[in-house]
Amino acid sequence: MSRSAARYGLLVALAMVLSWLESLFPLPAALPGMKLGLTNLVVLFALYRMGPRPAAAVSLARVLLVSMTFGNAYSLAYSLAGAAASLALMLLLKRAGTFSILGVSVAGGVGHNLGQILVAAAVLGRGALWYLPALLVSGVLAGAVVGAAGAIVIKRIK
Fold it and tell me: Which residue among 1, 4, 15, 132 is least crowded, i.e. fewest CB within 10 A of its CB?
């Protein structure tokens, strides 16, 4: 097995474990479905240490495996939309070169929530958009926490 395949496997497994752990400990006083987004720490690491394609592969593998293991078709749709929007924004800002890891992560947190609210609006109607302000605030806060942790991890792990 190549070193690269082993790293992919470890990152996907870590993302799955973080996703599972996060589901066990809901945020107090959070709106339904709101999470810290710890799995984005793994995607952020992959993006900065391995590149865009590996980050996309880790993100996609995590979404598919977690949805098949713990979710359903709706959770797959929400997760795919959130992960795709998050990764797209993170790639754009990282490529721009003017944003820190923290800024890139905040964009990822906001992007994830935007992707999910678009699916919610498509499934439930435009009434779901009332949730957007709370999701934007939570995306910024969660992205900042994950970005701060990610900056430390990325700096320390080569």
Answer: 1
How many alpha carbons fall within 13 Å on the CB side of residue 35? 19
Q: For residue 89, what are its two tokens? A: 């924004």
Sign of the torsion angle spanned by Cα atoms 140, 141, 144, 147: negative
Could you tell me how many residues make up the chain? 158
Q: Is the pLDDT of residue 76 over 90?
A: yes
The Cα–Cα gap between 143 and 136 comes to 10
Name the pLDDT band for 36 (thresholds 50, 70, 90). confident
pTM of the model: 0.91
The residue with greater pLDDT, 28 or 149, is 149
| CA separation for the pair 19, 11 (Å, rounded) | 12
State both tokens at 116: 């999910």
| Angle subtended at Cα 117 by Cα 73 and Cα 95, rounded to the nearest 5 degrees | 100
Which pLDDT score is estimated for 111?
Answer: 96
- 106 contacts: CB under 8 Å, gap ≥ 6: 139, 140, 143, 144, 147
61, 12 Cβ separation under 8 angstroms: yes
Tokens in use for 140? 């910024």
